[in-house]
Amino acid sequence: MNAPDSPNPAPGAPLTGWLSGWTSLHTAWLLFGPPAVMAGLRWVLQSIDDRQSAVAALPLVPVSTTDGPLALLWPVALALVLLAAAVLALRRIGWGRSLPVLGGLWIALWLYGSAAFLQRHLNSQGLFFQDGAAASASAGAAPVTAKVVTSQFKMPNLHSLGGTELVLQVSGLEIPQRVLINDPQAAALKPGDALALQLAPGRFSGRFVTGWKFLLPAASNTVPQ
After folding, report:
1. Which bin fits 192, alpha (ψ -120 to 50), beta or left (φ > 0)?
2. How many other C-beta atoms are found inside a 10 Å radius of the C-beta of residue 167?
3. Is pTM, for the whole model, over 0.70?
4. What is the 3-state secondary structure (H, E, C) of 14-37?
């Protein structure tokens, strides 16, 4: 009597079903196609931004805080747990059955990255950095006062032109905010200086700085302590 077929093919056994027609070319498309799509989308969005004559608005983001070493290590621990779970799943259900799942997760990962690039681009679409007077006229909102908490120079890199990174205590916001300004005048700012910011909301979320100016010390009493 022949032994019943094993639900999991033995290592090195030929694939069956629709996987029997799988070739190395399909594997190459699966591995390099999704990253190429995301890289192409990023290039297109960057080309659109480069054609704009105005400078894009500056993102104003909350300063991230941590509660200790565990808050820094949990992403690594989570990655290790997911990796261990994937290895156990592969050993249990077999390589042949796991290929569709792994391929789907791989594609979903890069599609998520592409969607994040597109969302970030559309979120600030139409928002540009202007001088204080022009920004006030276009936005129709009064400037918001802020106090410089820290100031640090950031070197240019592949993702940023660099400049002066300011941590600000913005009036009306409890959490300190961070903004990177690529302006030589911002390098002279020091902790305690007062600024007037022109803010605009993103299309989906967040805030953007569309203009800023230094406030004279006499006006610093309007800045929240």
Report:
1. left
2. 16
3. no
4. CCCHHHHHCCHHHHHHHHHHHHHH
